[in-house]
Amino acid sequence: MKKILAILMAGVLTATAFAGCGGETSNASSGSSSNSGSSSNATGVNSSTVDYAYFGEEDNVKLKVWAPDAAVNLVKKQIEEFKKTYSEKTFDITVVAQGESDAATQMLNDASAAADVFSFPSDQLNKLVDAGVIAPVAKGFKDYVTSENSEDTIKAGTLKNSDGEDTLYAYPETNDNGYYMVYDNTVVTEEDAKTLEGTLAACKKAGKKFIFDAGDGFYACTFAFTAGAKIDGLEDDGITQKFVEYDEDEAVKTLQAFAKLIKEYKGTFTSLNVKNVASGFKNGTCGAGIDGSWDTKVNQDSLGDKFGAAKLPTINVDGEDKQLISMFGYKYIGVNGSSKYPNSAQILALYLSGEECQKQRTEELGWGPSNLNVQKDKIVTESAVLNAIKDQSQNSCTQVNIASTFWTPMGNLGNKLVADEWNPDDADATRKLLKDTIANVRDEG
Amino acid sequence: MTYVEYKQLNPFQRFAHNFKKFILNIPHALAKFFKAIGHAIVRFFTGIGKGFKNYGVTFVKGDWATKLSYLIFGIGDIHKGKYYKGILFFLTEVLYALYMIFFGWTYLQKFNTLGTVATTQGFNELGMPVTVYGDNSMLILLYSVLSIVITILVFAVYISNIKDAYRHQVMRAEGKKPTSLKHDVKEFLDGKYHITLLSFPTLMIGIFNIMPMIFMILIAFTSYDQQHLPPGTLFTWVGFDNFASLFNFVDSATKATTFIELTKWTLIWAVVATFTNYILGMVVALMINKKGIKFKALWRTLFVIAIAVPQFVSLLLMNQMLQTNGAINIILSYFNGGVNPQIQFLNSSTLMARMTVIIVNLWVGIPYTILSMSGILMNIPEDLYESARIDGAGPVKTFTKITLPYMIFVTTPQLITQFVGNINNFNVIYLLTGGGPSTEQFYQAGRTDILVTWLFNLTMGSQDYGLAAAIGILVFIVCATLSLLIYNNSKSMKDEEAFS
Amino acid sequence: MIKSYKLRRHVANGLIYLILAILGIIWISPFVYLVMHSFRAEGLIAVDDYLIPHEWTLQNYIDLFTGAGGNASINFPRWFLNTFVVAIFSCIISTVSVLMVSYAFSRLRFKSRKKFMNVGMILGMFPGFMTMIAIYYLLKAMNLTGTLVALVICYSCGAGLGFQISKGFFDTIPRALDEAATIDGATKNQIFWKIILPMSKPIVVYTVLTSFIGPWTDFILAKIIMGDNLDNYTVAIGLQKMLSNDFINTYYKQFLAGSVVVAVPITLLFLKMQKYYVEGVTAGGVKG
Predict the structure, then answer these.
(1) What is the SS3 string spanning chain B?
(2) Does residue A37 surpass a pLDDT of 60?
(3) CA atoms within a 13 Å half-sphere pointing along the CA-CB vector of B354
(4) Is B154 on the interface with C (CB under 8 A)?
(5) A381 CB contacts (<8 Å, ≥6 apart)?
(6) pLDDT in tens, B196-243
(7) Which residues in chain A are contacts of B324 at CB distance < 8 A?
(8) Measured between alpha carbons, how far is A329 from A105 in angstroms, rounded to an integer?
């Protein structure tokens, strides 16, 4: 009716020969009706399937789920199981392929057109909470989720809400959102892979490349972190990045050591998009590279038996081997705050993040689980990749509470260090670069 | 300089002369431009004053139906027998009232604060989270703009309804009948044909160009940024803060530096890109169109293919070819004894990256220049050459005396359009370098970023909508002033009817 | 003397042929590279140290059209059809609007005509992506987001602003024709349809061509409007999606194939219509 009204209006305006615009209508902010606010003590759950009572009045539920392309088919299967589990209710659930990194952007654009249940990486959580588009984990589920998943993932998923209370905002899905070293084990031996020098030397000897994406802040922050400039959440204003105290002289030395090594191995150390790692393995031009867990499968396919995985290597600074520190995050399943079926969406998210589903993802996609029981499973403990990721996660900064001004300056730091004209011996320039980078991340001035 | 002196100059001197005249003319033209704006404003207000006067006078003189038209649209027309128009007027009022009651007013009443009710999250009796959405500042702003624009239009309808009522009253007093629908339709196909032709396009442009533009202009005066993201958080009016941060070297030095440096590079880029494209494109076009050169169609086709491949494909491909493992370095390695030189075209040296961008832009732009130049070259009146030949001019002389001056004369406006186009040339920069090489001195921008790509990074990347809108306005003012000045002083505007 | 002049001309022409050949190769080479690698069998994304693929295959094209070789979220034939439909409709509406506006500005004389023209000229200069959120929510209020209709609207709504070139073209048609017709009793409407339009083939083709290509190349606005509605994607968003992080390893070669599939029809169209394009842009754009 309102649409017709709009068309009529436009028509009349044209007819009366005045240029302009038609009206149109829609109820824009559809708030939920009931907000009791009071927390009537709903009894907690103790499995990833729950009592029908939690559905409330909801039936004929229509939900949309976003999953990354690689996981779409698996998620579809899991949803069939979900429907069987709750056979008393009818569901109409669609699964749409949506890159995880894109999910937050789309949520911010228009949450009401976005998915009800979606997976996303931990660094997006802040934005989603600020924009009020993500609903927190249901009260009754929180304790169970907390007990089932690793402490880190719970900690990183917990932010202060507008009243200043700690709130768990999403269901942990994986404990693997980071990068590690992959190598061709005919080129690089397990021993070589322990140090950056060894890896580079082995690659150079074989005439192959070592690929590291120094232009992308996500990887390049390794330089700053290893140098000691680690991040520590946000300042109280909620947008400025906080850094730990660090020894600047030491940091400068570390950065110089990186730059020297890069210069020494020019032609071997190449800064390229990580997508070139798998490609390079396939062509036989790449000896080793730093790549993320999401590319594990394609790297394994490219290398076959020759596949090797390890945590990031060490770098020698003044005779001391320093472990490379990386950025490490988690993936979560979130529930859209404007979902029309909020209860069902919560129940589905709980189900998809549960032990069984996580195990299936580990088996079929190689994703590292956040669920404590699955972590103890032998498919995890015996997986070289997941062990490498686990080792690396102990030498990392958590990818949560990252300022949006973080990535660009960090990418710049990396770009500068690998640039042809960068002089590794210039300590003053290195110091200035580091200071400027930190200042830019903090958006000072 | 007298006409005779001018005629004795060679084409380059003439061009230089004209160019100098143009540059010297800019302050004058600017003054004229602002004076014209001033006049327009004065005229606008006197117009309003006169409008008020007429409004009152008409009311006093009007009969009961005309007087009633002040409240109910179209009564006057219906009373005088002009039914269809009266009904349209009336419908407008009804629809407007419905629109305002059911939609517009809910937003418009919050326009001054952009919303006060914050979004809250709580839990229901099942322990399930419930989000209660408060005011959405962005939608309030957008739909308020919509409502204001509609109100202005309806007001215009209102005024014309009164005028029309009075006109018909006068006509009746003179014993004339109102014109029939058939007559009016005929009139709209002839005397008022411009209204028929323009109303549909104007309506579309009004909704999808002008209104979003007003919205974005207003955003520049709000605090819409990463800390104030609707629907979770409210934003509000902040006056000129966003503009100030572009020029404040004390509190927001990085942003101000970025703005100044990017403006410089944008201008350099626009000048260099335009002229290199123009000159080299002209050279290639001349070569293709030279008498005695065969396979003209083939040569042109080779260049045209570059236009036909979508830019996001060809530029992304170029980006890959320019990487250290890309095709260009591979080709260079053949000249380097098989060793890949690993040249970092795009993300190492500023100069190298900027040159690369300009060269790739030649690849993108020259085909267009060739196409338009070919047409002009074919269009040079043959009798000019004829008379030159009779005067015994050689090929060099005909070229410098006829071809070149003609081309420069004819394509100057095009040059300006291209200049403005290059200021806003998003694709080449964004897809080729993505702004790199990066630098620690800029805020969310790199060394090859121009203002529009920075603006894109600010909106899509760091959600600094307010700041981005402020930059957008500044870019717009520069481009608009420049092109208005030039078009209104160009030949095609001054004597539109030269050919007809 | 004459002989040396002739010789000089031959040398000059030879040189020009050489330069043109070199330039031609440079201009065509990215396209050749694209076509070659769309038939490549080996490797995932880049091949590092050679230019010409070692193994050739049609598999990339087959995968592209059957959706095999990946998960089901890529539906290229559908996207191609979407784009084609959008392009057809938006090019009809755009062409009609442009011609209406430019005829009005060129041939009709009315109050504030020049002001309208000035406003029309500068409106297009406001940076576009600033207004995209606004356009999105306006379309949403009309319940059109995620639909092809929305795309048609977006691509054709601003067309009227591109009147300069065709106005310039209309300006060159002698006014005596209009006057003669007016004396014979023709209305402005009849003059537009019966006299001016039949004479405007170059500019019509020019407008059709430019507005037809738009939907095939836009990937920013279309993405915002379509959101996650994969079924209604156009090829430009689709191809762009194939390059996103979780797609690129699987789909890169299909992306190359898809680009060729998009480029070929446009190229053919362009080549076929080149003559009119040149005539249109010459007559309309450059009247000093």
Answers:
(1) CCHHHHHHCCHHHHHHHHHHHHHHHHHHHHHHHHHHHHHHHHHHHHHHHHHHHHHHHHHHHCCHHHHHHCCCCCHHHHHCCCHHHHHHHHHHHHHHHHHHHHHHHHHHCCCCCCCCCCCEEEECCCCCEEEECCCCHHHHHHHHHHHHHHHHHHHHHHHHHHHHHHHHHHHHHCCCCCCCHHHHHHHHHCCCHHHHHHHHHHHHHHHHHHHHHHHHHHHCCECCCCCCCCCCCCCCECCCHHHHHHHCCCCCHHHHHHHHHHHHHHHHHHHHHHHHHHHHHHHHHHHHHCCCCCCHHHHHHHHHHHHHCCHHHHHHHHHHHCCCCCHHHHHHHHHCCCCCCCCCCCCCCHHHHHHHHHHHHHHHHHHHHHHHHHHHHHHCCHHHHHHHHHCCCCHHHHHHHHHHHHHHHHHHHHHHHHHHHHHCCHHHHHHHCCCCCECCCCCCCECCCCHHHHHHHHHHHCCCHHHHHHHHHHHHHHHHHHHHHHHHHCHHHHCCCCCC
(2) no
(3) 17
(4) no
(5) A375, A387
(6) 888 888 888 888 888 999 999 999 999 998 788 888 888 999 999 999
(7) 270-272
(8) 18
Q: Which residue of A has its CA nearest to C243?
A: A275
Interface of B with C in 219-248 (CB under 8 A): 219
Cα C251 from Cα C246, distance rounded (Å): 9
Q: What residues have CB less than 8 Å from A27, skipping those under 6 apart?
A: none
For residues B311 and C28, give the distance between their C-alpha atoms in angstroms, rounded to a whole number. 14
- Using a CB-CB cut-off of 8 Å, the residues of chain C touching A25 are 141
Contact A343 B150 (CB under 8 A): no
Q: Which structural domains are found in chain C, ordered by start?
A: 2-64 (no CATH), 68-285 (1.10.3720.10)
The predicted model scores a pTM of 0.84
Contact C20 B287 (CB under 8 A): yes
Poorest-confidence range of A430-434, B440-444, C260-264?
B440-444
Q: What is the pLDDT of residues C149-192, one digit of tens each?
A: 999 998 888 888 888 888 888 887 888 888 888 888 888 888 88
Query: Residues of chain C whose pLDDT is less than 50?
Result: 286-288
Neighboring chain C residues of B417 at a CB cutoff of 8 Å: 285
**CB-based contact, C56 to chain B, within 8 Å:** no
- Which residue of A8, A108, A279, A299 is the best one to mutate when testing the C interface, meaning the one whose CB has the most C CBs within 10 A? A279
- Specify the length of chain A in residues: 445
- How crowded is residue B45: how many other Cβ atoms within 10 Å of its Cβ? 9
Helix (H, G, I), strand (E, B) or coil at A192: helix
Contact B344 A419 (CB under 8 A): yes
For residue B231, cis peptide bond before it (omega within 30 degrees of 0): yes
On the question of pLDDT at A129 being above 90, the answer is no
Identify the closest residue of chain A to B445 by CA–CA distance.
Answer: A408
Question: In sequence order, which residues have a C-beta less than 8 Å from that of residue A197 and are 6 or more positions away?
Answer: A261, A315, A316
pLDDT, residue B150, reads 92
Q: What is the DSSP letter of A164?
A: S
- Residue of chain C minimizing CA distance to B138: C134
Residue B357 distance to chain A (closest CA, Å): 18
Of B207, B330, B455, nearest to C49 by CB-CB distance is B330
The rounded distance, in Å, linking the Cα atoms of A360 and A374 is: 10
| pLDDT value at residue B450 | 93
pLDDT digits (tens, 9 = 90+) for A308-366: 999 999 999 988 899 999 998 899 999 999 899 999 999 999 999 999 999 999 888 88
Which 34-53 residues of chain B touch chain A by CB within 8 A? none
* Domains of chain A in sequence order: 60-175+329-384 (3.40.190.10), 177-328+395-441 (3.40.190.10)
What pLDDT, on the 0 to 100 scale, is given for residue A75? 93
